[in-house]
Design goal:
Helix 9 (144-154) packs across helix 11 (182-195). The chain has 14 helices and seven strands. It is of the alpha+beta class. Helix content is 44%, strand content 15%. The chain binds a DNA duplex through helix 2, helix 3, helix 6, helix 8 and helix 9.
Length: 363
DNA sequence: AACTCGGGGAC
DNA sequence: GTCCCAGAGTT
């Protein structure tokens, strides 16, 4: 920062905090100062918008109101509460961290940076957020909002989606941080980014920092922050089988350490080159669960987008011809009635056809 | 430093 | 359709 910017620091702080006190949203986790509650909210909020998190936050705290209750649970109920929220490693890591806090720290969440940061699922952002909000520690958060606000305010041209840029934004965040009330300051910057200094069509007309904003002064606010372009994602075709044995269907559990780890799904996989989906379905089921099945009909086709690829999947109704389940890949399996499916956590892609499956079968 | 990991809201 | 979201862990 140059001298002029340093001179403005105190005025920027004051204007931001005043705006925050008048305009901040009333959010459920702002009603609490319990470290556990704050931690739950921050785990859910990473890469996830506020309005998406709110109902999950209420349900999670109702079922697991304390770190002891979370640590005492099996993983499956935790994943069930996380179902649909995505990035399931957050739930797995939080569950692991809760066990560590209970077993190693007497159920008291550590309030120093090094020990808290060492817990699974806790990175620099979560550590700064929880410790500043719950324990008033002077640690500045650097998230997507913070990078966008400061990139515009000071015309920082480091691309926000490149890891090396992090430490550049961190310097600005720490210089601006209000050490008398770091938790409120951190939330104020993020709130400004969410409500005013938005990615597109920022409301500079009502921004409390407009007169300090370098990018606005130079009339190119939306040119900031800079971003590195990402390559397009591949598109895969898949086949999935709903295998009936009487009135029960086969579901399998995914390995915990991988994508969608610990969740349940109907067995499926990718088509080989020029392979027909029906043939792929039978082949994949033979490979993964060692069953010989007959394809009865096509239930539906679904599209789904993940972060790094997209899929088109054909879902087939199958009947068991012969064989007993021998798993090659899945870590567990169950034959279940359709009305029991709701007890298991499934990925979003499976929910795109489960409702249709239940509806068709009820006819 | 780049890649992996979800799902949905806003446009 | 695209972009982005109160990011962390792995390689």
């Amino acid at each position: 920062m140059n001298d002029n910017q340093i001179k403005n620091v105190e005025r920027i702080r004051k204007a931001l905090l005043k705006w925050y006190h008048l305009n901040s949203r009333k959010l459920p986790w702002r009603e609490s100062k319990k470290p556990y509650d704050i931690w739950v909210s921050e785990m859910m909020l990473q890469q996830t918008q506020v309005n998406t998190v709110i109902p999950y936050f209420y349900r999670f705290l109702e079922k697991f109101p304390s770190i002891q209750s979370l640590a005492a649970s099996d993983l499956q109920p935790v994943l069930k509460l996380w179902e649909g929220l995505g990035y399931y490693s957050r739930a797995r890591n939080f569950h692991k961290a809760a066990k560590i806090v209970v077993e190693q720290y007497g159920s008291v969440i550590p309030d120093d940076r090094d020990r808290f940061l060492a817990l699974p699922g806790v990175g620099e952002y979560i550590a700064a957020a929880v410790l500043s909000i719950a324990f008033d520690r002077p640690l500045a958060v650097v998230d997507g909002n913070v990078k966008r606000v400061f990139a515009r305010l000071f015309e920082i041209d480091a691309p926000v989606n490149v890891s090396a840029s992090y430490k550049i934004f961190k310097v600005f965040a720490n210089d601006l941080l209000d050490i008398d009330d770091p938790g409120t300051f951190n939330q104020a910057v993020m709130e400004l980014g969410a409500l005013v200094c938005k990615p597109t069509k920022p409301d500079c007309g009502i921004c409390p920092l407009s007169k300090y904003c370098q990018a606005l002064k130079n009339e190119h606010v939306e040119a900031f922050p800079g971003k590195k372009k990402k390559s397009p994602v591949p598109h895969y075709f898949m086949a999935v089988g709903v295998i009936f044995k009487g009135d029960k269907v086969l579901i399998v559990r995914r390995p915990e350490e991988k994508m969608l780890g610990g969740l349940w799904e109907f067995p499926g996989g990718r088509l080989q080159a020029k392979e027909k989906a029906e043939n792929a379905c039978a082949r994949i089921i033979a490979e993964k669960v060692n069953l010989n099945v007959a394809i009865e009909s096509k239930l539906t086709r679904i599209q789904h987008a993940y972060t790094h690829f997209k899929i088109t999947a054909d879902i087939f109704i199958c009947t068991l011809v012969s064989g007993r389940v021998r798993r090659n890949g899945p870590t567990d399996h169950q034959w279940v009635y359709l009305n029991a499916l709701e007890k298991y956590p499934f990925p979003g892609s499976n929910h795109k056809f489960i409702s249709k499956l239940i509806k068709e079968r009820a006819k």
